[in-house]
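Translate sequence into C-alpha cells.
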Amino acid sequence: MGKLAVYKYFSFMFLVITLLMAVFTFCGLFGGHFTPVVHTAMAMLVYVLPILLIGNVVTLLFWLIRRRWHWAAIPAVPLLCSIPYIGTLWQPGLFSSDDNARSGLKVATYNVAAFGRETSGFKAEDILSEMIRQGVDVLCMQEYSDDSGDRKNSQSYKEYFSHMAMGRKDMVIYSRYPIAASQVIDFGETNNSGMWADIEVQGKLMRVFNVHMETTGFNRVLRKSGQLQNMGHNVETNALLRAIYNNYTMGMIVRARQADFVAREIQSTKKPRIVCGDFNDVPYSYVYNTILGDLVDGFKECGKGFMTTYTGKKPVRIDYIFHDESMEGETYYKLDHTSSDHYPVFMKLVF
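Result follows.
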C-alpha cells in the first residue's frame, strides 16, 4: 500500500509539472506580443522558451513510456504550437537555392564591435576582403568606427562600395548602388540608434534600414562584478542576480520603446523595405515581432540549419535581415568570422 501511495504521489506531481510546463510554454509563445513596459513577466518567458520546450519533450516521453496517452497530449499540444518558433532557430534548408542561380541584391549585416578598437586597420581590411569574396552589394554595420591609424576605414571601403551613408556615431550603410537619401533614426540619450538609406537598384528605389537596439546589460554587470572581486570586494550572489535582473528588464523596456519607434518608421514608407541590424533580442520577443510586422524573416524563408549570431557564451540569434514581401529570398546564412563578438549575416534577394 505504501508503494502504491508513493507511485500515485509521484504521478500526480509529474502531472502538475506537465500542466505548468504547458501553460508557461503557451505564455512564452504569446509573450512577445505583450510590451515589457507593462507585462514584464509575460515578455520574459520568451527568453526561456528553449528550456520550456525541452521540459515538454521530457514530460511527453515520460507519459508515452507510461502509455498514458491522454496525459501525453498535454505536452504534445504546446510542442506542435511551437513549430513556428522552432523555425526561427532551425530550418531544414528545403527552400534554399544556389546563390548564383539568379541575379539580385546581396545584403549583409554585421556588428563589427568597432573593429576591436585597433589602429592597424587589419580587422577592417579583413572584413572588407570577406565582403568582396561574398559579393556583397549592401553592407549595414553596427558599432562601426572610421578611425584606423593614418587611413580612414571609409577610404578603403569606398574603393569597393562606391556609396556610403553615415548614421549617428557608429552606424553606416555601404552600397555599390547609388544612395539617393539617408536619415538618422535617433533614439535619444543612448549610444544606440538607427538609420535608413534610399538605394537605387536596377531602376528601383528601396529603403534599407540599419538598426542597433539597446544592449541587455548582462555582460556589463558581469564585468563590473569581476572588477569588484578583483579589487577584493565580496559580491553576494543575490545582489548579483538582482543587478542582472534589473539591467535585463530595463534593457527590455528600452528596446521595446525603440522598436515601437523603428516600426513606425518602417511602416510609414511606401518603398520596398529591407531591415538589417543587431536587435539584441531573440526571435519571438516583443522587439522581433514589432519590427518584423508585415515583413519576411529571411532566415525562416531560405535559411538552413541552426542560426546563432552571437559568439559569446549565449548561443542566440540577435542579428537579422527582414525584407518586403515584394522581394524573394534566395539564400540566407552566416559566416564564422572571428573579427567581432557577432557573426556577419548574409542574404541574397531577388525582385
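Note: The first strand starts at residue 90 and ends at 91.
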